[in-house]
């Protein structure tokens, strides 16, 4: 049952990772479809290709921060923030396609969520250092506060 | 010896990751070499650069799914699927270089392997949930079936 | 306290990952700023965009190797090599912007550090296999040697 213990601590993160992979495949298929119509509509191909590239550039950063936050502190708020990030990314991708090329959205998106996940990592490490050097463990309080704070990500 | 237990559960995945890194460096050196001859042969540089980019775009997705599958279910079939993916990627890269720019292969490759690894993740999580709520553990059966199913990836 | 044990073995790696995320955001903001001035200065936008792309292409490879090395062998030398890599990457990015487009630095950078981290993974796996089949554990010696060898990365 030892292996089940490992799964217990990460299964929400694995689910979010799977959903993100599904989304990546959806993006890639959009690119592939536009690529075949490239001669007819060059600007549409360029837009979808650029949107996909920007999403893919940010993907390893997102995965790394989400997993670190989930492992260092607690997985439920990290997975929740991950889901919100995927929604933001979907909106960004759709928004990119609809815009004319003059007024594309910026290169960055989801900054607030990446910041939240980074803060979770830092708090998790501080909590570990406190436990190591002073023997105090505030993990339960911190987890409650983090869970509550993650609801703030829902604000538009 | 605690650290050795961790290594025991992932060492095949680490080996596949190392091989994939070696392959990435091989791809990057191809790009670097063509980049120096850029003035002589622009289309060759563009092809190798595009092939490398498509491979790199899919790389984090592949790594994430392979590690999740290996951790959630069992590492041997995940590592085997990873090796097959690397072979498919090598064939894709070489094929891209040989093609004329009119008939390049698509943006996506290795869909079947990504699908197989995703299914492994899902089965692993289901197995964990069954164990948690019903106390039943089908891990051994599932591992045997997965090991047999991974042989199907060898079909062309 | 079980969760704190997990954090104990990876917290240096998490810190390096966070610093690398910070650096990614810094790079992305540079791209975003140049993107707005695109009409005024096209070559500057192309250079910063290309530098960012090359860094992002290599990023998943770096993360994968660093975490494998840290988990398989020991985290301190892996995190140290990671910090050096980030410094090299910063220098590469800045150097890319300053160069005229004729003499850009190559596509690859930080080869020595990737090689060092890969060697750490291989040594960690060999050490595990030795322990498994012969019951010998050279981990302490290996960790000392690796720590000393990591100082060689400081050589220019």
Largest sheet of chain A: none
The beta-strand count of chain A equals: 0
Mean pLDDT of chain A: 84
How would you spell out the order of helices and strands of chain A?
Answer: HHHHH
Number of helices of chain A: 5
Strand content of chain A: under 5%
Oligomer: homotrimer
| Classification by helices and strands of chain A | mainly alpha
Intertermini distance of chain A: 42 Å
**What Rg of chain A, in angstroms, do the CA atoms define?**
19 Å
For the largest interface, the chains and their residue counts are: A-B, 28 and 26 residues
Amount of helix of chain A: over 70%
Uncertain regions spanning at least 5 consecutive residues of chain A:
none
Shape of chain A: elongated
Write the topology of this structure.
Three copies of one chain form a homotrimer.
Chain A: H1 2-36, H2 42-72, H3 75-98, H4 111-134, H5 139-150
Helix pairs in contact in A: 1-2, 1-3, 2-3, 2-4, 3-4, 3-5, 4-5
Defining key terms:
156 residues; mainly alpha; homotrimer
Question: Can you offer a commentary on this structure?
Answer:
- 3 copies of one chain form a homotrimer.
- The first copy, chain A, is mostly helical.
- Helix content of chain A is 81%, strand content 0%.
- Chain A has helices spanning 2-36, 42-72, 75-98, 111-134, 139-150.
- The longest helix of chain A is centred in the first third of the chain and has 35 residues, at 2-36.
- The A-B interface holds A 1, 3-4, 6-8, 10-11, 14-15, 17-18, 20-22, 24-25, 28-29, 31-32, 35, 52-53, 56, 59-60, 63 and B 9, 57-58, 60-61, 64-65, 68, 71-72, 106-108, 111, 114, 118, 121-122, 124-125, 128-129, 131-132, 137, 139.
